[in-house]
What does this fold into?
Amino acid sequence: MRKFYGQLFCVFFVSLLLLSSAMAARVKDIAHIKGVRSNQLIGYGLVVGLDGTGDDTKKGKFASEAMANMLDKFGISVDVASIDLDNAAAVMLTSELPPFSSNGSRIDVLVSSIGDAESLHGGTLMLTPLRGPDGRVYAMAQGPVSVGGFSLGGGGGKSAKNHPTVGRIANGAMVEREPPSTIFIDGKIILTLNMPDFMTVSRMAKVVNETFKQNIAIPLDAATIEITPPGRERGVLIPFLAVVENLQVTPDVRARVVIDERTGTVVVGRNVMLDAVAVAHGDLSIQISAMPMVSQPPAFSDGETVAIVDRQVTVEEEPGKLIVVPRGVNIDDLVKALNAIGVSPRDLIAIFQAIKASGALHAELEVI
It folds into this structure.
């Protein structure tokens, strides 16, 4: 057994050096094991201890009903209509339960107001269950809310920073039920690529087979690889998965240009190629100015004073520059050519859209 462990760790060390290059990535960074995933949790609770910045119970009954229900559990019967408090706020809780979380481990909780509370600063979350999509309680949350902002006002003035109605409780929930996690599916391990690609999935399967010198990895589609652990590795699955996750694979990506019109951001990926195309760029500036003027008649005349507006229209057009881009240029040549005509990011958006419409851009153009 010691000899086998020694061989396995030797394979692990060799796998770290295999196909290592500037563009290589680990398997764990571009793929994940099917069945090993995080789970989202949600809950409804009550934050108390606010300094008059809670919900207005006259407009909404979120906080008052939650308070009445909580007091009822302690044997105190209170009429909801008689509750009038502004130091409490009804909130929704969201959290993410990592895979393999054990009972007693802690996770962070995000607290968000759902009423008209002005701020959650200084508040404390009462004990609240967090449920999964199946309706089961997986964690219990409680603790002081940390808010990265403030909201102050008075005398008709108000000052606010960030979002004071959203806070976080670090390690504020304790796991009560372990989430289901499945590594084996019919005795096999399924790896799923984060970004499906036939070339990448083929390279990954080849690296796994060459590392273990067996045909244990079979690509099923552009995003899925099926791995059958050899007989002796099934008893020591964790070291086997550690070797697989640290294998170096060179991912292949599609040629893509991403444009964000709201911020004027343009991101051009590698492998973007162009056919022969000519790009002309010039700015047209139109300025319209209005100046009020008064027309006054001579003294002792029968004329009337009239107010008129003198409008002036000025049109300026910068001389356009024509850049001829040869066929088959890469992204470096493209950037140099566009910089030569002095384009701005927003002008670059229009240029890329026009080049794509002409059929000269061999890449996906994604506008977000």
Summary: Residues 281 and 347 are 9 Å apart (CA to CA). The chain is about 20% helix and 35% strand. The first strand starts at residue 25 and ends at 26.
